[in-house]
Request: fold
Amino acid sequence: MISCWKARAVLPKLDAQRLVEALEALDPTPPAVSSFELGERGLWEIEAFFAAPPDEQALAAATGVAMRIIPVMDENWVARALDGLPPVHAGRFFIHGSHSTGAIPANAIALKIEASYAFGTGHHGTTRGCLLAFDALWKRRRFRNALDLGCGTGVLAMAFARSVHRAAVATDIDPLAVAKTRENARINRAVPHLRISSGDGFRAPYIADGAPYDLIFANILAGPLVKLMPGIRRHLAPGGNAILSGLLDEQANYVLAAARVQSLHLVRRSALEGWITLTLARP
Reply:
């Protein structure tokens, strides 16, 4: 059942601030407007929630931005605001905060991640898309090692380490994200399997030492993914997989074209909340 409608746009910071101001100036004002930094290249995701489906053209005319309108399935937003972020189910993974510790399902791989500045609590469609893509792969094959490129809170690297019990390298260009990943790794008993470092792209420490990788996660954005595609191909083991996200619908084919140039072929494409996750394979 649809509970409300969400209008979403991804913009540079200054444009995002102007959009928030325009949304808050609407009459009537949307019940909720949120802004969320994506953590790469200064882009922000803006979301506005409406009780009834807004007119897309009228909204664009009023705000100056074409926003994607997405129906939101049944959820108690008041309870969500009062109780904190709800836990997330993604295949065999259960991502939760302290307030949901008592709700962990039997046989789930639980990861405790508190909401913070860092991207990757599991609630965003890109993070959940990556977890679901990994869960689908894990049912079919075994992995020797993994790389989480742009790790944010480290949720993907920890999901790998806790499920496969093999080595994973987690890196991010943001030192604060790296510090959060180290903290989360301790909380979630993943330290023995993780090597964590700060650095730009494939120049980050530990990456070369662990290559080639059976699995590479890269949950970033379309532009950086295209630039990193040669490195993804170079650091993947033959038969290895890459799980890529951070892509809007209209960006997926652009990224796929860059992947094909590197002889990486598509295994699976999935959509979640308007975000695309691609699973690729190296022959």
The first strand starts at residue 2 and ends at 12. The chain has two domains: 2-81, 120-281. Residues 77-83 have pLDDT under 50 and may be disordered. The CA atoms of residues 266 and 280 lie 5 Å apart.
